[in-house]
Amino acid sequence: MSKRLSQWLFFLLALGVLGGVIWFNQQKMQAQAQFGMPPNGAGGKPPATTRQAPPANAPAAGQPSAQPAAMPNAKAKQSEALLAEVSVMTVQTGSYPAYISAYGAVEPHYQLNLTAQVSGQIEKISPKLASGQRVSTKEVLIQLEDSSYRSALAEAQATLADAKLTYEQEQQQSKQAQQEWKASGLSGQPSSLVLRKPQLAAAKANLTRAEAAVETANLNLQRTKIHAPFDAVVISREVALGTYVQTGSTIATLHSTDWVEVPIYLSEQEWAALPSVAELQAESWPVTLHSALGDTQWTGRILRQAQHLESSTRLRGVILGVDKPLDQEPPLLSGAFVKAVLQGRDVAGLWQLPSTALSQQGDIWYVQNSALTKFTATPAFSDPQHIYIQPPAELADSAQQVLTHPLNAYVVGMSVKAVEVANEIN
C-alpha cells in the first residue's frame, strides 16, 4: 500500500515539474515579444543579422531623415488616446426660480367630536349619520325623546304668564298708592314701601326670570334635535338607536368640508427663497400638492405663516390650504401624506446641473486645461432633475466644463480627455 502511494506521489511531483517548465518557457516568450527581442536559437545565441538594401524612398547619405520629425506627433496622438475620457457639459451661470418642496399631512379645517347638549334617549337617527357620509347644517342627525322638554317649556310659559300678570298688577297698585298719597294731604315724602316700589321691583325681577326660563326651556327642546354645526363628512358614529345619552356624550366625529390644511416646515434657507410674508398673503401664493403614493396632484394656496418654531425641528411652519377637498378629482382626503412644491423667487448666479454632477463627497468636478479640478458645493436648491449650484466667483463669469458623472477614483490634476454630452436636463 505504501509503495503504491509513493508511486503516486512521484508521478504528481514529476507532473508539477513539467508544468513549471512549460509555464517558465511561456513567460520567457511573452517577455521577449513584449520588448521586441527575437527568440533565441536552440543554443541561446541570437540569429545572424543580414544587411538589407535601403528602401527606394530612403534619403541619400548625408541628408536628414523625415521620419524623426513625424514621431512626436504620433507620440502625442498615442498619449491622447491613452487619456481617460470624462463626460462633461458646458454650463454658464443663469437665473432660476427657487424650487422648494416639503412633506406634510392633510388635516381638516375643523375636527369636531359632536356631543349631546341635553340628555335623553335617541328616538331617531338619520341615515346620513354614518361613516363616509356628507352632512349639512340643515339636516337633523339625531332626534331625542322630547316629551319632558315640551312639558318643561309649557311650565315655563305658564310661570311667565303669571309673572306678567303679577307685574302688571304691581304697576297698577304702585300708581294707585301715589294717587292716594297725594289725595291724603300729608306733608313730607312717602316711603318707598308706601308707594309699593319694592313690590314692583320684585315683580319685575320675577318676570325677567320667567322669560329666561322660557328661553332655556325652548332652547333645551331645540337641542333634542342634533345638527352638525358646519358642513362636514362623518368620520365615525358612537351611538345607536335607543341609546340614552347624557349631556356631553359623544355622538359622532366630524371633519369640515370647506377646506383642508397642510402644515409644512421650512428651513431658513428655504424661507429666504420665498417672497416676503406680505406678498405671500396678498397674492394667495400658488402651491402644488403631489400624492406621496402616486402621480395625483392638487392646486392649493398659502393660508398663513406660523409665528413660532416647531419644538422638535426648530423650523418655522407655513400652512397650506386646498378649497373644497372632497369636490376635487380625485378627492383630497384628510390624513393623506403629500409633497408640497412651492415656486420661490428667481435666484441669479447659479449653475443648473444634473443631480449626478454632485459627487458622493459633495464636490463638483470640472475640467480646466485638460486636467481635473474640483470645489466643494452645497446646492442652493434642487428639483427632481436638477441641482442648482452657486460656483466660486472666479468661475462665475465664464463657461465651464463640468463632469456629469464624477467617480470616486478621480484626483485633482489628473489629465483627462473631455467629451461633451447632450444636456439631458433641459
Entry keywords:
Elongation Factor Tu (Ef-tu), domain 3, 426 residues, five-stranded mixed beta sheet, 22 strands, OB fold (Dihydrolipoamide Acetyltransferase, E2P), alpha+beta, elongated, conserved putative lor/sdh protein from methanococcus maripaludis s2 fold, nine-stranded antiparallel beta sheet
Task: Walk me through what this model shows.
With about 425 residues, the chain is an alpha+beta fold. The protein folds into three domains: about 85-95 and about 350-420, conserved putative lor/sdh protein from methanococcus maripaludis s2 fold (Beta Barrel), CATH 2.40.420.20; about 110-255, Beta Barrel (OB fold (Dihydrolipoamide Acetyltransferase, E2P)); about 260-345, Efflux pump adaptor protein, beta barrel domain (Elongation Factor Tu (Ef-tu), domain 3). It has helices spanning about 1-35, 65-80, 145-185, 195-220, 270, 275-285; strands spanning about 85-90, 95-105, 105-110, 110-115, 120-125, 135, 140-145, 225, 230-235, 245, 250-255, 260-265, 285-290, 295-310, 315-325, 335-355, 365-370, 370-375, 380, 385-390, 400-405, 415-420. Strands 2, 3, 12, 13, 14, 15, 16, 19 and 20 form a nine-stranded antiparallel beta sheet that branches. A hairpin with a 2-residue loop joins strand 17 and strand 18 (about 370-375). Helix 3 runs antiparallel to helix 4. The longest helix has about 40 residues, at about 145-185. About 20% of the residues are buried.
